[in-house]
């Protein structure tokens, strides 16, 4: 089962590498407009502090929404709106195309993977997950979580469905129903409990926020019902979990 988290981490790394590769394609360019204005931040409300003229060479550092942070060969760095770079040329005088990942790309993504941290029943938890989206409102998700407490450590293998009914919202809520296996390992100093493995069901509610390019912020709260190995329902255990983290889609 540990191979699951390895695969998820690989998918996450590949998606981040893909994002970085896109940025690397936009390294050194030449200004073709009469001039561009450098702002102190990524927005028209930030003041202009420097003007760069046509034929100046700039380095594209990274993108935030429709704004690019650039740096001159003399080290002057600032933010430029995408429309001011519409005629930018590469160093061999060919036009440069500035691709932009939009909210629509996020809405119609197919794959997503991410890393989360939080609290599971009073103990810190670390999670990795991967998901496949069938359509803009429904996806399936596989995750592996590791929680380490004072007297025991826990592994959770979870598989479920995620519903995202309002994909057009900036802060998009989602609902997650899942089932899985929880494997508890007690420490040597704790009372023996045969290191039980139990089944569980969970329901979750959360928010996704498309931050920039292919990066998503995710916040999630979950309620777990862990089924006892006995037939007595009074032995079932309720646990709560919250997590926050980042994901990439592709």
> Averaging pLDDT over every residue, what do you get?
81
Low-confidence stretches: 17-26
Radius of gyration: 24 Å
Helix count, DSSP H or I runs of 4 or more residues = 2
Count of extended strands? 15
Can you give the helix content as a percent range?
10-25%
Sheet with most strands: 8 strands, antiparallel, barrel
Strand fraction band? Answer: over 45%
Principal-axes geometry comes out as elongated
SSE run: HEEEEEEEHEEEEEEEE
Strand order of the largest sheet: 8-9-10-11-12-13-14-15
Structural class: mainly beta
Assembly state (oligomeric):
single chain
- Amino-to-carboxy terminus distance: 24 Å
Written overview of the protein:
- There is one protein chain.
- The protein contains 2 helices and 15 strands.
- With 250 residues, it is mostly beta strands.
- Strand 8 and strand 9 form a beta hairpin.
